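ok trying again, last paste got cut off:
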Amino acid sequence: MSRTKYYLILLSVQIVVAIIVYFSLSTVPTETEETHNEPEETHQQVNWTYEENGPKEWVSIDQTYYSCEGGYEQSPINIQRESIWEDKTFELELNYSPTKFLLENTGHTIEVKDTSGKNSLMVDGEEYILKQIHFHLPSEHQLNGKTFNMEGHLVHQAENGKIAVVGLFIKEGQVNTELAEMWSLLPYEETTEPIELSQSIDLLEVIPKEKDVYLYSGSLTTPPCAEGVTWLLMEEPVQMSSQQIEVYAELYANTNRPIQPLNDRKIYKNDME
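nice, full thing came through this time. structure:
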């Protein structure tokens, strides 16, 4: 083989190798391309529930829910006779009038909003405006260890942001006619717009005639479980028919937080009239 032919063959081999290397490198993604093509990390908000992310997990869902486990004055509680103090008097006054409420399904409960600003509660001269009413099934609080079919919470707020809640035990009995229209319109799906009730509801006709009430300092019973809430639990339960209770149970059953320790708190009893 001549030297000229040898160099031609060698040059041809080098050209082929160079072409192969070029195309191989062009198909390797760069670091920038790899980063661009990776799926973006998604941060999904974890919502609290009464099941998978139930009361025992609330504290781990959000750092602002610390009180749900670390609080000292949590609600609900069991109202025991031996825990009641009789040596404190407090002035209570309900100022309710017939109102057309707004009905919502929040995804956690049925909520009845009051935007009128005309319904209020007076506690020792301090005014709390009614903001909303919602329900739990079965009851959250207990009375001498007894759990009721349901419990209603009338949530009020003062101008300084403090909260007072009137709690109503609900037991199976007669049809609650005052709430009949509202119960017939209970939305089965979470609502995006409130439903305006056509008929007014007189809360003085909803609450029990006997107004013996238990007062204690507690918390919200749902996250963030904030404390400093004044609780006023009426001793006499109100009634709803078995059908009304069953209708609500189809929407939200087992929506009660477990009983919390009383610790060193005092429970006082008084007559709201």
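cool. Residues 2-11, 15-44 have pLDDT under 50 and may be disordered. The longest strand covers residues 227-240.
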